[in-house]
Amino acid sequence: MSASSRAGDLPASVTARTGCRLGMQLVLAYRFEALVQLVSASVVALLNWSLWTAIYQGRDQVVGRSAAEMTTYVVVAWVITTFYGTRVDQELSGRFREGLIAVDLLRPWDLHLHHYFRDLGRAGTALLITTLPLFAWTGGLLHLRAPRHWWTWPVFGISLLLAHAISFGFAWLVGVASFRLRNAAGLAHLKATVIGVLSGSLIPLDLYPGVMRPIVLALPFQGMSHTPANIFTERIPWDQVWQPLGVQLAWAVALFIVGRRALRGALRAVVVQGG
User: Quick check: pTM over 0.85?
Assistant: First the structure.
């Protein structure tokens, strides 16, 4: 069965609405998990802020950033992971192991689009019940520096959507890999580690040594936390902000195309377990 054998049965708009609604319902059904995520993300954000506050003792700037800018960057870079973080790789791997992927392929929607919009619905709900509350309390308690220009907010929002698309693209590829590997748990852990190190969510990419810095900045991972956090802190001026957004968009589209082709290739060789 091809990846798109029934993709045209259901209009994309219906697939989008259905997927978003299911994603929202999934988050609301597991409210305790959302609370745990809120608490754990708060702890990490506070630790990051404390670490960089200590580093700046007696220093005016580090890698050209003031203490206020750096502490805002590290907190924002971590907080937004609650929005773009996705488990679609684990979901796909689990459904493959249980033999449920065969049922999914019989449904009248595009499997790739359905999972994207479902995760977008999850992300939107997480934004309301986790990400925004985190922004509120960290901004007030830790005295983070708010953007000074009105345009920062909509551009930051666009960058967040693209960060989610990039994150989904990588997770989708890992999930599809489970069709061939039978178990992609190790690959999923590797993905999480690489994203943590190379996205800027834990370590500002400006701190990488000279040889490595242009390499990590050329990779798609920087579009997840580094670019949105730089936009929020207004590190990037208005007349240059469209360049990093364009890079984010290019990576998001590339990962989307590769993800669809990877699914097609995996389904040609798949042997569904359990039936």
Answer: yes
